[in-house]
Amino acid sequence: MKCFEVLEKKKKKEDYLKIIFELGGREKKVSNKQIAMSLNIAAGSVTEMVNKLVKEGLVTHTPYSGISLTDEGVKVAEKLVRRHRLWETFLVEKLNYKLQDVHSDAEVLEHVTSDNLMDHLEAFLDHPKYCPHGGVIPDKLGHYEEESHLTLSEAKAGSTITVDRFTDNHDLLTYLDDIDIKIGDTLEVLEHAPFEGPIRLRFTQNGQETSIGYKAAHYIFVK
Fold first, then answer.
1. CATH of the structural domain 152-222, one choice from 3.60.120.10, 3.40.1830.10, 3.40.50.300, 2.30.30.90
2. Separation in Å, CA 211 to CA 24, 31, 174
3. The pLDDT of residue 3 is above 70
4. Cβ distance 159 to 177 under 8 Å?
């Protein structure tokens, strides 16, 4: 039982580091609210875990400003992200998983995989640079292209954007599949409804209109 509890605590800590990395915590401050929304947990739980990560030297926390990864935190997060996203790529490309169904199995596999197996998996997949939901995949030396951290929620009305990547969240990916928004789609931002209402968009390819919920728009990264 104790062994299981230790593993669960380790996994939870790693989930925090991965989501802080994904939200841009390598280069900017990430808020407690962003982490809580992404992991679908209470804000109080975020505060508790962040304090533990600060003590371990993996993140820094500036009150009322946000959380960012330390150099050591970046190294740990890059390794975790590499493992997770390589397995996601394998499951989608080779085993025909749906994108929204891949996260949980990739989570299991990343925790039981040796470095040697990861190197062979990367070579088998021909050294992919991006996972199926658009996130970068660091190589074994920690090299990767910088991700966009501009969210759809920040795109101004009247601007034209291209969907670059999605946060790795099952409910979000299911939602985006339902409304048929994909990586690479180009959209015109028509209107931000007031009081945290939906964002109205138009596909430039065919002129069709759609709307994205306020919360979801925070986890769609665009260029």
1. 2.30.30.90
2. 25, 25, 15
3. no
4. no
